[in-house]
Amino acid sequence: MTTTGLEYVPLTSHIGYFIGATNIGIITEKQGEKTRLWLIDTPNTIALTKFMYETLQAIYDNLELVAIINTHSHADHCGGNVFLQERTGCQIWATKGESVLMELPILQSALVYGGSPIKDIESKYLKADPCTVDHILTEAIRFDLSETLSVTPVSLPGHYIDMAAMIVSDKTDGKQVAFLADGISGRNIIKRYWIQYLFNEQQFKQSLLKIKEIKADFYVPGHGDMVTEIEGLVELNLLAVLETEAMIEDELTKPLTFEEILKAVADRNNIPLKVSQFELIGSTVRSYLSSLYAAGKITYEITENRMLWKKA
Question: Pairing state of beta strands 15-19 and 6-10?
């Protein structure tokens, strides 16, 4: 079933996903007269969330939403939480770090901005409505949804503070589906957005190598096309990060301020910086500078009340 920006795709007897700007995991199981439902993330708008839920109600009889399992707290992954929780009484599950940010979303735009944020970046794409998390997920501790279905969180920090992939196992088919959140992006997304938001670039690279070791039959990134083989996609994502590292180092033929580096990176990638891109890509460039500084590749000096970055 499709609509603008959404398409429902089954992968196993009990696991599927909605293709959209954000891919949403769908887990269902018949129990008596009811069909129990678990979601992995929600869309960022009420309209898309409502459409998704009503589509599932049309497919499955007596649908009961048990819980939303959030990979992380960015608005495009939890924006529909409040709507569904109020409508169905479902629970919300997330890791400890992400639960704090979901309950206090003002911290997210403040983190990007570096202080109390200007209202221009407090959009639905950067700030979801606050929601209460009912259950804290722990790295590598599997929890059973039923005798047939289980979920294992895998910690993937880097894109965000305490993000986790969800590895869903379906014993009926003997299949596993890895919902990888924003730990990796599909080829179509990398091609369009070569530089993507990162909170910690070094951790992101480590998480990519961790993803490479995950064994699954289907790999669903938070954004982009599903794949059945992950190694090539890991290498492409890693290449994008390393190329951006090299670009920043290449610009430092002379000491530059952060904003001069940001302008150079945006110019070289033909990115017109409106205010939201200025803050998001700017925050990402700062993360790259921190990583390169920690690696001893660059350093800084304070000259005439300006912080100047230069090669080490």
Answer: antiparallel
Distance of CA 154 to the CA centre of its chain: 13
Residue 286: C-alpha distances to residues 64, 240, 247, 278 (Å): 44, 16, 14, 12
Read off the pLDDT of residues 8-42 as tens digits, 9 standing for 90 and up.
999 999 999 999 999 999 999 999 999 999 999 99
Contact 101, 75 (CB under 8 A): no
Distance CA 152, CA 69 (A): 11
Query: For residue 135, what is the enclosing H or E element?
Result: strand 135-137
Q: Which of 186, 164, 178, 163 is nearest to 15 (CA)?
A: 178
Q: Tokens 């869903």 label which residue? A: 168
pLDDT in tens, 50-106: 999 999 999 998 999 999 999 999 999 999 999 999 999 999 999 999 999 999 998
Report residue 147 CA to chain centroid gap. Answer: 29
Name the token pair of 10: 């089954």
Tell me whether strands 63-69 and 34-40 are parallel, antiparallel or unpaired: parallel
Q: Which of 97, 84, 252 is nearest to 160 (CA)?
A: 97
The 10s digit of each residue's pLDDT in 228-252 is 999 999 999 999 999 999 999 999 9
CA distance 96 to 119: 27
Whole-Å CA distances, 2 to 8, 19, 65, 269, 286: 7, 9, 21, 33, 39
User: pTM of the predicted model, to two decimals?
Assistant: 0.95
